Amino acid sequence: MILDKYSIGVGDRFGQQGKAQLKAIAKANAEGLHIVPVWNKSWREHSITRTTPGHVRKEADAAVVAIGWTGNYYVDADHVGLATVDAFLDASDFFTFDVADFTNRRAADSDIAAFVRKYREFAGTLTVPGIERELRVTDADIEDIACKYLCAVQEAGRIYHHVESVKGKGNFVVEVSMDETTEPQSPGELFFILAAIADEGIPAQTVAPKFTGRFNKGVDYEGDVAQFNSEFEADLCVIAYAVRTFGLPEHLKLSVHSGSDKFSLYGPIHDALRKHEAGLHLKTAGTTWLEELIGLASAGGEGLQIAKQVYCAAFDRYDELCAPYATVIDIDTARLPSPKIVAGWENGDFVAALRHDPSCEQYNKYVRQLLHVGYKVAAEMGVRYIAALNRHEDTIAAGVAANIYERHLRPLFAGLS
Q: Which one of 19, 227, 280, 366 has the minimum C-beta count within 10 Å?
């Protein structure tokens, strides 16, 4: 099973927008692109919305039938570890192994020493084709990288071989994720991480490192775009070199997590992909759920009331809802409007605050991040929330499709704003 060159993870908190998401991708492909969808939902999201991985498979299959999709598509067991992966085995054919919690855990001393001995040949000046500056590497650097990342890659190996024992070799796509770590991985570190992945016999098709800068949920990139671009290009070159050097799958590509709404990066990413003829997996981060809230708020009436109630409850439960996402949100609580203020908003006020349009004076990126992690409140509404989505399906679906097509697929994969 070989993942296509361009793919996009289309997370869907409540499993209602599969057709709208797929229509957006089909529209882009009809214009000459070739992008495949990967429906992703993590164990944490399932536990909050009281769904199972089987629900995601049913949503994906139903959307494919409904619009007559004939291309490839995948269902991702998102951010799984050994403790959670079994629940995804039947429904998924794409597995994102999240081993960030195992970084900076020390592997066995003998394993570290063996790793250093094996890769000592790369010490000194490491010349990677496509990177102008040479990378300086010492034995101590290789040992430090092994101390930081070897245990994590070994854990990914354990997860992979467990899944392989059930699914069979070559019957699923593998991604190794280290994006939710405290520190970004440099291109040099990525090179040796890929060496370790090869040693574990993991046929990784995508790898998700942590990049420099902030990839906060649902809002634009915060950091030095030029620095990101330099790092991203270097990572592309490292992957191409590691594939040839370590015998990794030739279609191995970068994966950008929390990649939705990073509008300032899409132009540089597009240019780098074309320059290096590289592929990409972009994993969106709940942008569809926010489009649902925008659609409900714009409808007014009960839809607006539901949107307001979600915000007010999220505001009151800030610590509870934000704690699990602390590394991927950055909220200035002083800039959050009080529930009393929001209660007096008209539908246009709510939509303007939430829709990701920095040119709008009312746009509030802190409101957007809080609501991004506030989907638990909507989940607790149960049938009331789902019924509201059904009543306003046409409006919401149009917004979901337009958001993916206009603001994500066209600028990222076609270079069009």
A: 227
- Among 87, 57, 58, 50, which Cα is nearest to 74's? 57
The domain limits of the chain are 6-286+405-414, 288-399
CB atoms within 10 A of CB 142: 22
Q: Are 100 and 81 in contact (CB under 8 A)?
A: no
List per-block mean pLDDT (blocks of 10 residues) for the chain, which spans 417 residues.
Answer: 96 95 98 96 94 97 97 96 97 96 96 97 94 92 97 98 98 93 90 98 97 94 96 97 97 95 97 97 92 97 98 98 92 98 97 96 98 97 97 96 96 91
> Is 6-286+405-414 in CATH node 3.90.1150.10?
no
pLDDT digits (tens, 9 = 90+) for 187-201: 999 999 999 999 999
- Which of 189, 242, 196, 194 is closest to 211 using CA atoms? 189
CA distance 71 to 162: 29
Distances (CA, A) of 62 to 77, 241, 288, 404: 18, 40, 18, 19
| C-alpha span between 47 and 84 (Å, rounded) | 11
How far is Cα 337 from Cα 341, in angstroms, rounded to an integer? 6
Say if residue 175 is exposed, middle or buried (CB neighbours under 10 Å; 0-12, 13-18, 19+): buried
Question: What pTM did the predictor assign?
Answer: 0.95
